[in-house]
Structures are given as structure tokens and as C-alpha cells.
Amino acid sequence: MTATTTTRHPGSLAARGVPHTAPPRSSSTATVGAPWGGVDAASVGVWAQLRRVGAIVRHVTGFLVRSRLLRVTRATEHEVLQREGQWIRESATALGGTFVKLAQQASIRRDVLPEAYCDALDGLQDAVAPMSFDTVQEILERQWGRPLASVVRTINPEPIGSASVGCVYRAELCDGTDVAVKVRRPGIAASFALDLSVMERLLRMMQLLGAPTLGLSVAMIEELRQVLQEELDFRSELRYQDLFRRAFRHWKAVRITSPRGYYDLSGAEVMVSEYVRGVSLKELLVRLRTEGEPYRQQLTSLGIDPGNIARRLVRGLHFQVHECPFFHADPHPGNIVVQPGGQLVFIDFGACGVMPERDRHLLMEMNQRFFEGDVVGMVQCVTGIMEPLPRIDTNALTAALEREWWRGYYGIISRHAEWHERTSFRLWTVLMVTLRQFDIPLPSRMLKLVRATLLYDTVAAQLDPDINVFREFLKFTKAAAKRRRRAIRTAAFRQLALGPDDAVVDRTYQVGRVARRMLYRAEKFLNEPDIRLDASIDFVVGVLREFWTLGITMFATATSLWLVSYSWRRYLYLYDRDSYRAGERLIDLPVRLAREMAEGEPHAFVAACALAIGTWWMLTNLLGIAERLRRLFRQQNVTQE
Description:
Strand content: 5-15%
Helix content: 55-70%
Mean pLDDT: 78
Distance between the termini: 90 Å
């Protein structure tokens, strides 16, 4: 079961007559770290720019006119959005390149775009005609600085993958190693820069004229610019691929890896890595859905268990988020290869994400709250990741999220739910829709994580409809605890057997230095002549005694007021039922007493005298306490002087 068969194509190097003179190394090497490799939109010819601008303006204008005419009809809002989504998809496909990437990026932005748009753009493929092999050969020889025949024995001129960024070819090195060679299209950086510049100017013009912007924003274009820059940086992609491979060596049981890269043959325009044999997970899902049990038995004979793959995919995501320095942000089934025996090989690291330590802790806490049935706590964790929030009604936001997340929670724990209800799809989709309603953009790092989580969970649920993604998180945490326990035990045995290593010696020396400084400061503090512990203790005791007296006084005063209030209510109940039923308040007592005293009622004079005595007693106690505290502080100051 292989993705492609090993063949020698007739268009090999000998047949094509590859020249054996090494071309000079190009001096126009892309500047490392510069946006778009040191090129911009101005590097494209003037007529090419005008043609591109004309094509973009034609599609945008046509969409706006058709959209306005459609809204004049009696079509419902949902029908209008569906038609507009299909038109956007057709325009993006026709324009290609950057606009396909923009449509793919927009398909997951349910936090800012209507759901009908996202549904229409979902699954849009970036398929472009391959480059001519003469161009590929020129780029490879310029990158390697020597003839093609001195590096590879054969190379298939028909690419195994062709996209807007570049093409991937299968080749065989001179030592017999099968490799995949990814070649960047010439001029693609300038083309991306031109498209993004035109899109940004058109968007600003549409905003100025008040035309509908389809939910797009300058921030989304800037986000797309960052994504495209990452995909064009082959050095960064190869580095991510190597780090991913090294990280998963620490958890061999999950059997996830990535191809080995060849740094000496890779550069700004070319990336060479190990050729991976196996079946694409995308093909595996399609055949499972169409062929059913016969294909499942065929997989079993090859040592591949779809349910086991589903569980390892979910645990692998948690390992990337919580223990790796980054995570694969585009793990769609086409980027995962399943090998005989069940090992998973991830490819295409052009899009990766990084989560700060604070966000990792919040995600860990959110998953743990799920097992406690604390959906409110889960919402608090996810809103904490998005902080700082704009000036909105946070209570309304959390209430809307809690209402929908409870429904998603019930679907996950239900034994009779559909496969898509047993994933976190509803939780994250509701989050993005709710954020769009409150006009809150999702942070870029969180958007990448949500996209990756949705892909992992959806693929896992298709492989195993009974999977519980949150239960797999619990198993991941147990495995992580075992790995940490094993690492601590191994380190302890090594220290005991071979003695402390350099890191332990350095850390012990640092602890000793800190301990000496603490002892010095403590000794200096205790030897200060101005420090008198007996006076300090007397001061603290005096303050506590005064506060105790104050508390007793306040309690007595409150008790007196309660007794007065109770007596007043009893008096009304016995002698003035009408006022009692009317709910006359205690605050009305002074007015009533004054009126009854004016009328010459004896009980009014008695009640007024009682209130005056109680108030005078309370104020006298408070003034006395304040005076004692003042004297106590004065005495403390004199003692220290």
C-alpha cells in the first residue's frame, strides 16, 4: 500500500541531457527574515500589475452588482448568503493563488463571516498547473550550485503535488535514497505581495464608500500575509518538521513522526526531505466510507486499526499543545500518511502555531473542568484565553456561551449521539459564531488551535464514531504523568550511580548562594539596634485589644438597634395595625416620634430618650477607642525614637 509506485521515468537525467557544468550560484538569494524574501509588488512588471488589478476589480465589481440585484428580489437572507458564498468560491477559484489561500483562511473564520460563506468555501483546493521541468531544473541547480546529475540519480518530471506555492517531485539521490523535492514557483512571492496590496487598497476603498466588505477586514488580510510568508519560508518549514520529529521521540508509544529533512540540499527555494511511503489518511477515509468492511479487513491485515489511529491523533494533539514547542496547525487528512503497522507521518509544516504558557494552563484547566461537569468553568477558561476583551457586556457573552456549551456538553457525554456530536465541533463553532455576534475577533494563535482541533476531532470521529475526545485527554494526562515520573526516576538513579552532573552542581551552587544571602539579611535585621521586639509585641497586642473592644461595641450597638426596631414593629403590630400592614419602615421612626411628641404622646418621649441614650453611648465608645489608638501609635513612635 503506497502513495505512489517506484518507477524510473523515461525523462530521467540521462535522457534529458542534463548539462554537467555547474551554473554560478545566484547572487539574488532571498534575504533571510525579510518579508516575501526581500521582494515586493513593485518587482512585478507594470502590464502584469495592470492585468492583475483589472481581473481583481472585474470579479469584485461583478460580485457587488450581482449581490445588489439579488437582494432587490424577494429571496430570503439565507438564500442570498448561500448564492453569495458560491460566487465568492467561483471568483477565488478563477483568480487562484492568493485568493484561494484567502478563501481557505476565510472558511474557518466563523467568528467574523456568515456561516453560509464558510460552508461554501469549505474544502476549496489549491490546485495549480505544474511548472515546466526546465524551470524546476534551473531552480534546483541554482540552489545546489552543481549539476542535477551530481545530486540525484533520477527525478520524475511529473509532480506528485502541485499548488500555488510550489510543486513536489519524487527523486532518488545518488546513494539510492528516495526523497521528496519541494520547489517554490519563481515569482510567487511578488505575486502574493501584489495580490495582498491590491486587496488591501480595494478593501479600504470599499470601506470609504460604504460598500459591503463581505466580513473581511484589514486585520484578516494581515493575518493572511503572515500565513503566506510562513508557507514561503522553506527553511522555517524544514526546521518545524525536524523539531516535530525530535519532540515525538519522547513519546514513542503514540507512533507519530515526520519525514527526515536534508538541510544540505534545502534552501530558500528548495526543500528536500525523506519520501514517505504509505496511504494518505484522506484516501483511507474515503475508502472506509465507500468500501466499508472489506477495506477495514484489508487494513487489519496491514496492522492498521482505524480506532487506534483516531485515539492517537487526539492524544498527539494534546502532546503538541502541552509539551511541544509548537503544534501542526493544518493537519487535514491530506497531510497525514498512514504506514503499515499504523505509524502516522505528518507532512507539510507550512502552517504551525505556538501557544503561550498561560494559554496552555487555561486549556489544561478547561479540559479538566469537563470531567467535573463544570461548563461554567470551561467558558471562563476559554474567555480567559481571549483576554484582553474589548468593552462589551461580558455577562451577556458568557451567558450565551454557557447556554450553547451546555448543549454541546450533553451531546459529548450522550451514548446515543451522532458521531459529529461527540466531538468538540459544536463547542468551537458556537464560540466563533458568538464572537461574531459580539464583534470580537479571535486571536490568531487561538484561531490556529481551533482549526487544528476541529480537524483532529472530526477525523478521529470519522475513524471511530464512539470516541470521546475529552476522555482521550484524560488518558494523555496519565501518560504524561508516567513519562515525567520515569524521567525523574531515571535522573535520580543516574545521579546516585554516577554522581551529580554539571546541571545539578550549578543548581546546588545557586541554591547555596541564595541561602547565604537570606541568612545575611536575617542576621542584619535581627542585629539592628532600632529593632525592639518587646515594643513591637506590645504594640501589636494593644492594637488587637482595641479592635476587640471596637468589635464588642459595634455588636452591642447593633443589638440595641435591633431591639429598638423589634420593639417598634411590635408596637405597631399591637397598637397600629394599619401602619404595620403598610410596612412602615424604621427610617420613618424619627418623623413619627417628632409628630407624636408634638401631639403630647408620652411613649414618644420615652422612645426618643432611649434612642438618644443609645446613640450617645455608641459615639462615646467610638471616640474613646479612637483616642486610645492615637495614644498607642504616639507611644510606639516615641519608643522607636
